[in-house]
């Protein structure tokens, strides 16, 4: 098959919209969609500094690559989770990705910072649950301490569709009320704006972009993610997408149109400053400080030359 625009051999067949594209025209298509997403949802304002959280995997690597190519002011943060060889490989990929882009990379190592890696804490709490809590706190605190205007993550359309699907299945209206391509800054900037530039691009398209542009990435899944229900939900949605192309994007856009129905049920808890770290908390001590039994605030401030 031939590219729709130049008659070169096709690199990928897009199912929605239906067309064949060569590497060059697919790259243009992908970057145009990212730019359109940024503009449509007002993800990035003029002159804003963006902290891209890079894991070493494809999604965050592609996010950093495209934002840099589009001319945005970015730096990257890698959180080494302390999960043995998996985390060591992830860090090495993150380093190579940022070197190739020529952007600063900051590294926070959980085991050095908190004394235990993810999976090493004796707790009844699921590993993925406190891992997510830890990552969200660290990247938000790092961004706040260093004056970044937004934190960009590599969540793609598949991630968003499966998250919405999972929470609809369990009627978790609190989560459904807050989901979306952008989470605005809150609490006098202590909750930094979160953005998802790949919000309307599928995982398949992200993989294809990485291949077309020679982006190396860590392909191993986190060992703690085995058996996660989100993987099952992604499988269900993939089956539906194969039968009816466009299912995922229409599902997510439909959710955004009806999101106000869930917001109506949202009862926002009044936030206060955590007594330990000073960051936003619904109680006297925030979830991060309580879980990790912190006695003083972490300071991620960089010493700029």
TrEMBL record:
Cofactors that this protein relies on: [4Fe-4S] cluster; Mg(2+)
Keywords: 4Fe-4S, ATP-binding, Iron, Iron-sulfur, Magnesium, Metal-binding, Nucleotide-binding, Transferase, Zinc
Rhodanese domain ranges (all copies): 21-95
Top-level division of the source organism's lineage: Archaea
Binding site for Zn(2+) 2: 274, 277, 286, 289
Residues engaged in binding Zn(2+) 1: 3, 6, 22, 25
Keyword 4Fe-4S: yes
Cellular-component GO terms for this entry: cytosolic tRNA wobble base thiouridylase complex
Single Gene Ontology BP annotation: tRNA wobble position uridine thiolation
Record-linked CDD domains: TtuA-like (cd01993)
PROSITE patterns (UniProt xref): RHODANESE_3
Pfam family, one: TtuA_LIM_N
Record-level Gene Ontology MF annotations: 4 iron, 4 sulfur cluster binding; ATP binding; metal ion binding; transferase activity; tRNA binding
NCBIfam families with a match to the protein in the record: TIGR00269 family protein
Protein name: Rhodanese domain-containing protein
Phylogenetic placement of the source organism: Archaea, Methanobacteriati, Methanobacteriota, Thermococci, Thermococcales
């Amino acid at each position: 098959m031939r590219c729709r625009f130049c008659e070169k051999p096709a690199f990928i067949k897009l199912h929605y919209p239906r067309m064949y594209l060569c590497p060059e025209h697919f790259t243009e298509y992908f970057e145009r969609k990212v730019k359109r997403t940024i503009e449509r949802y007002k993800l990035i304002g003029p002159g804003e500094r963006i902290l891209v959280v890079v894991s070493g995997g494809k999604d965050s690597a592609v996010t950093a690559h495209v934002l840099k190519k589009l001319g945005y002011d970015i730096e990257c943060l890698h959180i080494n989770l302390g999960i043995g060889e998996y985390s060591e490989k992830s860090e090495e990929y993150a380093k190579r990705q940022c070197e190739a882009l020529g952007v600063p990379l900051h590294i926070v190592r959980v085991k050095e910072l908190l004394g235990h890696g993810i999976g090493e804490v004796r707790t009844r709490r699921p590993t993925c649950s406190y891992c997510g809590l830890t990552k969200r706190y660290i990247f938000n605190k790092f961004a706040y301490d260093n004056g970044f205007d937004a934190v960009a993550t590599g969540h793609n359309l598949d991630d968003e569709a499966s998250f919405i699907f999972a929470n609809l299945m369990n009627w978790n209206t609190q989560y459904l009320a807050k989901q979306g391509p952008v989470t605005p800054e809150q609490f006098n900037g202590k909750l930094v704006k979160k953005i998802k530039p790949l919000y309307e691009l599928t995982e398949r398209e992200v993989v294809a972009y990485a291949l077309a542009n020679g982006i190396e990435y860590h392909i191993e899944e986190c060992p703690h993610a085995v058996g996660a229900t989100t993987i099952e939900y992604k499988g269900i949605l993939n089956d539906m997408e194969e039968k009816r192309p466009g299912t995922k994007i229409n599902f997510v856009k439909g959710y955004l149109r009806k999101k106000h129905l869930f917001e109506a049920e949202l009862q926002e808890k009044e936030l206060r400053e955590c007594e330990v770290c000073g960051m936003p908390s619904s109680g006297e001590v925030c979830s991060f400080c309580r879980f990790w039994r912190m006695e003083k605030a972490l300071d991620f401030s960089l010493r700029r030359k």
